[in-house]
Amino acid sequence: MPNKTHETDVAFIKALAELLNDNDLTELQVKRDYGENDSLNVRVSRRKEVITQVQAAPAPGPAPVAAPAQTAETPAAPAPEANEDPASHPGAVISPMVGTVYMQAEPGAPSFVSVGDTVSEGDTLLIVEAMKTMNHIPAPRAGTVKRILVEDGAAVEYGAPLMIIE
């Protein structure tokens, strides 16, 4: 009998792994109760890379023509940041949940913050909607918003970087 339970547990775990892949989830946790002192806790997860910029470096030929225009409009600092993981930045604000990002309180209203804005600790940066609940994401520290890494209406995963505050 224990072998039968083991086989069904393995089949159950395989089904959870397929569900994880088929629905593009990063984590799934389930508790299966068999009796008073008999249960199975399963957590299936996978690492998901967050890509914030998919643009390739310009080809060597056009670079001398395009580079001066880019340098004049944007500072040189964003180029190195494109190669590093924004989640590892010390000023990164990380999503505390899976959901949909909203940059303003309601459609047509001004955004909570923009790049260059100064924020105080506790100020609302954006909203993450999860299961029809609007969760205001506060600034974890005072500083200046340097980068916004998500777009309004975009889906975010738990632990995904939302913005950089320095």
From TrEMBL:
Residues 54-91 are annotated as: Disordered. Pathway: Lipid metabolism; fatty acid biosynthesis. Keywords: Biotin, Fatty acid biosynthesis, Fatty acid metabolism, Lipid biosynthesis, Lipid metabolism. GO terms for cellular component: acetyl-CoA carboxylase complex. Gene3D superfamilies: 2.40.50.100. One of its GO terms (molecular function) is acetyl-CoA carboxylase activity. Residues 66-81 have a biased composition (Low complexity). It comes from the Bacteria. Residues 90-166 form the Lipoyl-binding domain. One of its GO terms (biological process) is fatty acid biosynthetic process. The keyword Lipid biosynthesis applies. InterPro entries: AcCoA_biotinCC, Biotin_BS, Biotin_Carboxyl_Carrier/Decarb, Biotin_lipoyl, Single_hybrid_motif. This protein is a component of the acetyl coenzyme A carboxylase complex; first, biotin carboxylase catalyzes the carboxylation of the carrier protein and then the transcarboxylase transfers the carboxyl group to form malonyl-CoA. This is Biotin carboxyl carrier protein of acetyl-CoA carboxylase. The lineage of its organism: Bacteria, Pseudomonadati, Pseudomonadota, Alphaproteobacteria, Rhodobacterales.
